[in-house]
Amino acid sequence: MSTEHAEQALTPSSYITHHLSFNAKPIGDGSFWVLNYDSFIMSVLLGIVVMGLIWWVARSATTGVPSKGQAFVELIFSFVDEQVKNIFHGNRHSFIAPTALTVFLWVLAMNAMDFLPVDVMHHFVYAPLGLEHWRSVPTSDINTTFALALAVWILMIYFSIKVKGLGGWIHELFYAPFGGAKFFKPKSAIGFVGLLLSPLLFVANFAFNIIEYVSKPLSHSLRLFGNMYAGEVIFLLIGLWAATGLTGTIFGAILGAGWSIFHILIVALQAFIFMMLTVVYLAMAHESH
After folding, report:
1. For residue 6, is it within any domain?
2. What is the DSSP string of 39-66?
3. Is residue 8 assigned to a domain?
4. pLDDT tens, 165-203?
5. Structural domain boundaries enclosing 276
6. Catalytic residue annotation
């Protein structure tokens, strides 16, 4: 790296912009679709690694005294299964529990990439591969978190229609939460008023349900993205401070170690919250108002 480039990299704007830039590949004319292939490749690789490790441990599992790896995996399995059992009261082992386990481990692995020192990875891994910049944390990309949230959203609608039927799902859109004409007795005065107001209730019910359906993937994705993106920026600011001199290096190392310890909680907690919201949304899809 040239001296001029190194000096530019130490300015807050250029340093942070450099490490937060994506390797984007336009799709088509690039006016709308763009693929951040560093986020995509890291997501796929981490999914393969995590599921491969789980498969390897499960393949070598024994009924006797478990190994340390088997005991750790069984602990994770039981933890996730217990969380799902407290929320979902159907046959959780057919789909819900495996999905929750997959989401938790996958998001946890993607979040954990935030612990990789960006400058070390750049100089010793990415630069030798000819990559000027590379985003190692897929969940700090809004496209990744929104794709995960949309997948859960599609599953939620699928199970709502599967459990209640298409007619039952549409009926719920217009009759929940305030009900409609069928809930009023037309022979009473209150029932007569309710009968007159039922078209307005249909509109209100539909509006509230549409808002709910739109807000779920937004809150689901933005919560994870915001926390991981903020954590990545803080690591970059600490690294920038550490490059200012001996004093900055000492305090940067102390702050970096402290933030890394605190970030362990954030990484695990955000994976847990994303998993729990996934289970809650899928459980709500199986229930009727």
Report:
1. no
2. HHHHHHHHHHHHHHHHHHHHHT--SSSP
3. no
4. 998 898 888 887 776 545 444 555 544 455 555 677 788
5. 16-285
6. 219, 223, 227
